[in-house]
Specification:
307 residues; alpha+beta; two-stranded antiparallel ribbon; single chain; 7 strands
């Protein structure tokens, strides 16, 4: 009995020592984690939690905490980028609104002046310029309002089968005089028939914005095409350019992005962003490319089953 009792006492002693050792390790681990967390609160750091004494399931806990910290850091970085983008957007909008307003105000002051040098003919010219500046402002606000509705998902799209070839040709014909003023006739290639599932007004807006972008930023060699490629229709608008570099391609569809640093071309920087958003909401793909000085944008559209 004495030997059994001593054996039990020994086992209890050993068990107690093991528990005390594990408790000590847990205390050391918790103390280490508290110190690291306090340091992270005091300083901006990308360091992760470490294990001082790997005991029990503390490594799993540390791994889970590190995953949460990484996720929070990515969220914080994204919010910082979005905040910077938001401030840049506000700056761009302010500049684009202020420029035509300032110009219009200046010409209105000339119209209202009593100077003998401002003849009746001059007043008519100034009034026409004021009207142009207001049209520019109206276009900017219209683009901004449209983009906001599209991005918020507040623009209802009615998807139906349309003849993209006919609609593309009709929309392109509206810019006939613009190309005449450029002194350059576009190279047009059109596939018939070419039927797709799309919102009619959204398709027209995409074509309009692509053509306007080419007219504003292009310097010639205009190419407009709608062709079939397997089960897809490919809408392509290309033009020669002197303002786009290879590094611009990654940002060309970003809102308010423009390669015209001085923003003197009266562009809102929203046209291509609207193209991408509308295409995305209809399940289409957009891509931009630059070969030499020829810049092109392609929209890949699935053909309807009836094509």
């Amino acid at each position: 009995m004495t030997a059994l009792f001593l054996g039990i006492i020994l086992l209890l002693f050993i068990g107690t020592c093991i528990l005390l050792a594990r408790l000590f390790c847990y205390r050391m681990q918790i103390k280490h984690l508290i110190q690291e967390l306090q340091m992270m609160q005091q300083e901006e750091t990308n360091l992760l939690l470490t294990s001082a004494v790997p005991v029990g399931r503390t490594p799993e806990l540390i791994s889970s905490l590190n995953c949460m910290m990484e996720k929070n850091r990515r969220t914080k970085e994204r919010l910082i980028r979005e905040n910077v983008s938001y401030r840049e957007s506000i700056t761009s909008i302010s500049h684009d609104i202020r420029t035509p307003l300032t110009s219009a105000k200046g010409y209105m002051q000339l119209i209202r002046s009593h100077s003998a040098q401002v003849t009746a003919q001059k007043r008519l010219e100034y009034a026409k310029i004021v009207e142009q500046r207001l049209d520019t402002l109206n276009d900017l606000l219209g683009q901004l309002f449209l983009y906001t509705r599209i991005e918020a998902g507040e623009l209802p799209l009615t998807i139906e089968e349309i003849n993209a070839g006919n609609l593309f040709a009709e929309t392109l014909s509206m810019f006939y005089n613009d190309f005449l003023e450029k002194g350059c006739e576009p190279d047009i290639q059109l596939a018939h028939p070419c039927r797709i599932m799309a919102d009619r007004q959204a398709f027209i807006r995409i074509v309009e914005n692509l053509i306007k972008n080419a007219l504003v930023h292009g310097t010639g060699a205009y190419q407009m095409s709608l062709r079939q490629n397997g089960t897809d229709a490919v809408l392509r608008v290309a033009n020669r350019t002197d303002s786009i570099d290879a590094q611009d391609l990654a940002y060309i569809f970003d809102r308010f992005y423009t390669t015209d640093v001085s923003r003197s071309r009266k562009t809102t920087g929203l046209g291509l962003a609207i193209v991408k958003e509308l295409a995305f909401q209809m399940g289409w793909k957009t891509a931009a490319s630059l070969e030499g000085d020829l810049f092109s944008i392609e929209v890949c559209i699935p053909l309807s089953d009836g094509s």
